[in-house]
Design brief:
Blueprint: H1 2-28, H2 52-68, E1 72-77, E2 80-85, H3 88-97, H4 109-112, H5 121-131, H6 137-141, H7 144-159, H8 170-183, H9 190-196, H10 199-217, H11 224-227, H12 231-260, H13 263-267, H14 276-285, H15 291-322, H16 324-332
Antiparallel strand pairs: 1-2
Protein name: Cytochrome P450
Main location: endoplasmic reticulum
Pfam family, one: p450
């Protein structure tokens, strides 16, 4: 009897502690405007439900509101606060102060594990410090030949569609960006990347990214035990298997390439000239990164370079096609 009463008291105290912490947190953010449409319990979660166009409209509408209200606006998803930021100075302050990721970054862990995109702050700091040499301007300029070569190949591919009416350029751009990643970040020769990055990989990557967005929009799938029973989870597992197999093949091919390279060639490559994957393998051989950590960073770089660059190029082409006068100026230049 006394044990039951004590347990109840502990539960009540714990609940009160959570309420106090939440009250203090809400007081700190009380001056930040909240978007309209707040409902009991679920708060703004219902506004996310829908397709990707609905999500885009949600972001656009509330970004415009944020611009009018000081560059930051508050969104509640259940009991969690999120902030939509449009002011660059506010964004800089937040990014320097808040290094730990939101919980929904974990949704991508089945694909990219704990790479620098999803890692906790301590891991992120350590890995980012190790990888900084590969993000320099010097390294980027060294890849201009690859960029030009792949760009010429992209133009040849797109030329086949000329004069045939409307078509979707994204599959061409996706293949281009993935092969470029293999030739630069992963350090693979141009004649080997196409054997790894095939249409099956592109399709699996597209599926995975769509599933991640769909899960974010459907709040009931934020609970791992609910999502684990869904058809989306089974589809995610199939796509993740394809993607992990491809990244593992990239890793093995680069290992074999380095092993078979002439010693003089290896000796002449300084740390500033190394590809991202070469540096990872160097850290792996010295014990700074495990095999699993190397694979997770490979997956992260593929994700970071694939959809972002392909989407930016896609929008660039759409805008050029929408403004023929500008397109002509670009052509003349």
């Amino acid at each position: 009897m006394i044990g039951s009463i004590l347990l109840c008291c502990l539960c009540v105290c714990f609940y009160l502690l959570l309420l106090v912490r939440r009250w203090r947190y809400e007081r700190l953010t009380s001056k930040i405007p909240t978007i309209p449409g707040d409902l009991p319990f679920i708060r703004h979660a219902h506004l996310l439900i829908g397709d990707s166009e609905n999500l885009q409209k949600f972001i656009e509408d509330n970004s415009n509101k944020a611009n009018k209200l000081g560059g930051i606006i508050k969104v509640w998803i259940g009991r969690r606060q999120h902030f939509l930021v449009t002011d660059p100075d506010v964004a800089l302050t937040l990014m320097n102060a808040c290094l730990n990721k939101a919980y929904f970054y974990e949704f991508a862990s089945s694909w990219i594990g704990q790479g620098i995109f999803t890692a906790k702050a301590d891991t992120w700091k350590a890995h980012r410090k190790l990888l900084n040499p590969t993000f320099s301007q010097h390294v980027l300029v060294g890849y201009l030949q690859v960029f030009n070569s792949r760009a010429r190949g992209l133009v040849i591919s797109l030329a086949a569609e000329a004069g045939r009416g409307e078509f979707d350029s994204f599959p061409y751009l996706a293949g281009y960006t993935l092969e470029t990643i293999c030739n630069t970040v992963m350090g693979l020769p141009e004649d080997t990347s196409s054997s790894i990055i095939d249409q099956q990989f592109v399709s699996a990557a597209d599926t995975m990214l769509n599933l991640l967005i769909n899960r974010v929009q459907r709040v009931w799938y934020h609970w791992e035990w609910v999502y684990g029973w869904s058809g989306m989870k089974r589809e995610e597992d199939r796509a993740a298997k394809v993607l992990k197999t491809a990244s593992y093949d990239v890793l093995q091919k680069r290992k074999a390439s380095k092993f078979n390279s002439p010693k003089d060639e290896i000796k002449n490559v300084g740390s500033r000239q190394q590809s991202f994957l070469d540096l990872l393998l160097e850290y792996n051989s010295s014990g700074l990164l495990s095999d699993q950590q190397v694979l997770e960073e490979v997956n992260t770089m593929i994700v970071a370079g694939y959809d972002t660059v392909a989407t930016a190029l896609h929008f660039c082409l759409i805008l050029l096609g929408s403004y023929p006068a500008v397109q002509e100026e670009v052509y003349e230049e």
